[in-house]
Automatic annotation (TrEMBL):
InterPro entries attached to this UniProt entry: LAAT-1, PQ-loop_rpt
TM segment ranges: 12-32, 44-63
Organism encoding this protein: Aspergillus neoniger (strain CBS 115656)
Listed GO CC annotations: membrane
Protein name in the entry: PQ-loop-domain-containing protein
Keywords: Membrane, Transmembrane, Transmembrane helix
Topology relative to the membrane: Multi-pass membrane protein
The keyword Transmembrane helix belongs to this UniProt entry's keyword annotation: yes
Length: 93
């Protein structure tokens, strides 16, 4: 039996809310970098490691068959992290 079948409605709702907040936390930084056209103070390794860590985390959560919000969270976070990493590489040139 999958882990998502054992989840209560409350855990699905709270998981969804947490996923939304976790995923959008990088949006203000992306916007701020774009508006200023610089990424001063952001190390490239941080953006790279955040983007890369999303891959094994996403695979693990999919294989564990956790609820859907938790399965898509690493992909969204990894995408936003890759955008920040690309901004760091682009604006620091």
């Amino acid at each position: 039996m999958s882990a998502s079948a054992d989840a209560t409605p409350a855990s699905n709702v709270l998981g969804t809310i947490g996923t939304v907040f976790w995923c959008i936390q990088l949006v203000p930084q992306i916007w701020y970098n774009w508006r200023r056209k610089k990424t001063e103070g952001l190390p490239p390794a941080m953006g790279f490691l955040w983007a890369i860590c999303a891959v094994p985390m996403g695979v693990y959560l999919i294989l564990q068959e956790v609820n859907l919000p938790m399965q898509i969270q690493p992909q969204i976070f990894g995408t936003f992290s890759a955008i920040i990493w690309a901004q760091i590489l682009h604006y620091d040139q």
